[in-house]
């Protein structure tokens, strides 16, 4: 062989090998301070780090390998969310081998020789320490950089979050990928699933922080799986752009992240009621039969769903003339009986020249195209379809307008977006060369895939809000990205009727809630296969404590209405659905906390007490709102379960038995119960059972007041549950304080706002107080009577005006030595 050719071959092979090498930043040669809180670190090989101090708790790291600073655009973080943040005073100093930025809460060190970052709290505790730090690899096939970040794993660290991953709550030792996928009948450990939420929590030395990797390309996360001392995340393109979010509590990390990506508006109250769904309820006679079955059996329900069979040949925004000849009349008649109609809308638009939606899409170039120009085609339920480019503002505006007839004319109250990962039958999703507008930042499917469902939900929510006014809208989506909680509720996808999936439903909903997406639930009973009556009863008991509460099943596997498993299970389903409706004031208040402070509605045990290491690996128990602790039964034949109570004092809901936390306890729970505890000092607002929200005016609300030797606070928010008057101040926040001692219990109320509820009185029910007692309301003697609760307990109660200031309970007989609360006689 010619030696010149041989040398050239070596050279070519060497260059090819170099293209797959990992590259690293060079030494820092200059730092440009762009303003008071943005610093640009320039390296000798052209790498740059833009470090933005958003607040004293949030640092943004944005690494660039070459070229000019690209436009700063994010679907997850709206500009208004950033503008609300203030960094305070940021101190910047140069040291011999590093640069140091200091805020009121954090210290950030950037190494001069490597651009590696270390973040500490002000006491000097290391929170985050780069291992290799930022590095990248050129991908010859796509032209993108595969951007990577690796960090050290300190001893005793734990990881949580990352959205809908169906695995143990604690993520340490696992690896996951975000690439929204239609995963029918997934199992524990399946990955990826439908949602793409690149945000996780780190808990070390009882101090928490979060990492939000805002990159929409296919992304992976390794939580010390490959190497026990390294955790890493990387993406197949785009920027290495992440936010460090300091707690120091896990709850604060979620709150800061949720406010950064923005929580949703308040939903209408009826959406927190019970929903009934199936693939599919048709024709009209079947829908009416289901509605009558619920009302005749006195099973509360607010919403009925129509799956793809309501359409004409699965064409979106049409109605089957055979199955639903007069949808406007049907929807009106259902509404007269208290049912809100929800319809499914998928992204695939059937290629049919006689179909107006298709005609408009073609005429205005609204559909996605391949790289060389032809329209992207894929098969879904209608057959061969084109797909709207929801990343284009003009397409979202068009799509929103399509809901006018459905909502304004026919009266549909909610829309359910499915198949929007996006899913197609040929190869799972779109080809990688499909092009997207990406709000003016042209992109391929590799970049747009993970946000497609979110942008579809965004366009749908815009249409629903426009045409539902003055009522509030409702949407639900299967796929989403960080920030998608602004536009929609969600569910955990095509699960299976099994005990394993009941366990998964509990974990997934908790995980999504702490990942900023609280309005979540699962298909109760399972979508695939048929549950036993016992499994359905246990599942609906859990679902009653999830924000989104819906039975849904595939028509291929038999009936799955609450009465499908015999009279005993019907009674159990009614029992738990009624409990949910009584708890609606509490649920709505928890949702208000979520929308205003970013507080997750479902709270894993670790979030309730991160200083208790016993909570770190447990996952069955969870908090709902401020005062309830729930632990589902997830095994057949059980008459109860062992569970861990967080530190503090608790009451078992079903018996009022007081129980000290910080230990495992046995919770007796036959099929009529789910292990449910109420925190001592809680004021739990509950309403009468309604068959649907708005069925009748509520004349009296019950306040369940739980004794505490000490002081505790509760809130109750109310604004009527629909409309937008609350934005003009027509709302009321009631703050309750319980102060207890061995001789008395005092309940005080302060009121903010001017909303006047329909009820004029509270019935105050006293828990954990032994008699005889004397009671005064605002200094006047009050009459105490015995109330019989739905649990069978007989407890002291009194009626007070809603505007009361103080209720004072004096205990003639001591409530126990050293504050120990005896069980009530009824318990």
TrEMBL record:
Keyword Hydrolase: yes
DUF5110 domain ranges (all copies): 700-769
Residues of the Glycosyl hydrolase family 31 C-terminal domain: 598-684
Gene3D superfamilies in alphabetical order: Glycosidases, glycosyl hydrolase (family 31), Golgi alpha-mannosidase II
Top-level taxon in the UniProt lineage: Bacteria
Pfam family, one: DUF5110
Key words, A-Z: Glycosidase, Hydrolase
Domain Glycoside hydrolase family 31 TIM barrel residues, every copy: 264-590
Domain Glycoside hydrolase family 31 N-terminal: 51-222
UniProt key word Hydrolase: yes
Record-stated family: Belongs to the glycosyl hydrolase 31 family.
Identification of the protein by name: Alpha-glucosidase
Lineage: Bacteria, Pseudomonadati, Bacteroidota, Cytophagia, Cytophagales
